[in-house]
Amino acid sequence: MEREKDMQGSRGYFIAFEGIDGSGKSTQARILAERMRQAGFPCYQTMEPTDGPVGLLLRQILTGRMQADPGVIAALFAADRLDHLTNQVNGIVKKIEEGVTVITDRYYFSSYAYHSVDLPMDWVIQANAQSSGMLRPSVTVFLDITPELAMERIAANRAHQELFEKKPFLEQVRGKYKEAFEKQKAQERVLVVDGSREPQEVADDIWVKVKGCLARGRA
Ligand code: ADP
Ligand code: TYD
């Protein structure tokens, strides 16, 4: 994964973290960003939903202050994602073109997994076709933990639960993630990592696997 022109070109890498709530995405995204910077890769960390106008609307829905049907929620996430990619100020595409590596906490696999509990997965994939057509992650890291462990972590750390943070729902989402990875395996590179270990152990595993994956070239 040396920073060589013929391997990476002048573009930055795009690394997406996925997993059910509490799986450790934000913890691991932060550690990976630090390691990438130490290895000489300028790095930009971001997340979905964004803090743009559609993202703020989504936060109102996730915290129960506003109600919306599943199809509306899925469409709003797709719209937020497009802004996330193309925003003129800090959009992901712009960062990558500037040679910055972008690490995101959630991308379209979150939509495939969470929204296909209520909607056909193919419809959700289609609703995100503009985003996937524009930019696929160099690699997607899926932090796998059981819903039991997720609920323990959420209960210990959250003042209030959001819309999706219920154990049977998380169980379904975890299954849907795996279904989505299988469906998309011809066009996506996904690393499944056991997220139930100590944070540093998980981080070391991710570092070795991501380096190996990026060294094998772009998807
Ligand atoms: P996510 O972004 O996937 O919701 P976070 O990184 O915010 O997950 O982690 C959820 C909670 O669990 C946080 O309070 C975090 O400190 C804790 N946590 C994260 N990773 C681990 C781990 N490997 N072991 C134990 N607790 C963890
Ligand atoms: P957030 O609090 O950022 O997640 P986390 O608990 O992992 O820190 O809220 C994101 C919520 O939005 C999460 O419950 C999953 C859901 N979500 C979707 O339903 N679809 C999507 O496309 C994305 C990106 C998130």
Could you provide a short overview of the structure?
With 219 residues, the protein is α/β, with parallel strands linked by helices. It is 53% helix and 12% strand.
Reconstruct the topology from this structure.
Blueprint: H1 5-8, E1 14-18, H2 25-38, E2 43-47, H3 53-62, H4 70-86, H5 92-97, E3 101-105, H6 108-115, H7 121-127, H8 129-134, E4 139-144, H9 147-157, H10 167-183, E5 190-194, H11 199-215
Adenosine-5'-diphosphate (ADP) binds next to helix 2, helix 9 and helix 11.
Determine the strand fraction and express it as a percent band.
Answer: 5-15%
Largest sheet: 5 strands, parallel
- Say which CATH homologous superfamily is assigned: P-loop containing nucleotide triphosphate hydrolases
Radius of gyration over alpha carbons? Answer: 17 Å
Helix/strand order: HEHEHHHEHHHEHHEH
CATH topology: Rossmann fold
Overall average pLDDT: 93
- What strand order characterises the main sheet? 2-3-1-4-5
Can you tell me the number of structural domains?
1
Helix content: 40-55%
Task: Walk me through the structure.
- By secondary structure, this protein is of the alpha/beta class.
- The protein has a single domain, classed as Rossmann fold (3-Layer(aba) Sandwich).
- Helix content is 53%, strand content 12%.
- The chain has 11 helices and 5 strands.
- The chain has a 5-stranded parallel beta sheet with strand order 2-3-1-4-5.
- The protein is globular.
- Bound molecules: adenosine-5'-diphosphate and thymidine-5'-diphosphate (TYD).
- The site of thymidine-5'-diphosphate (TYD) has 13 residues, from α2 and α6.
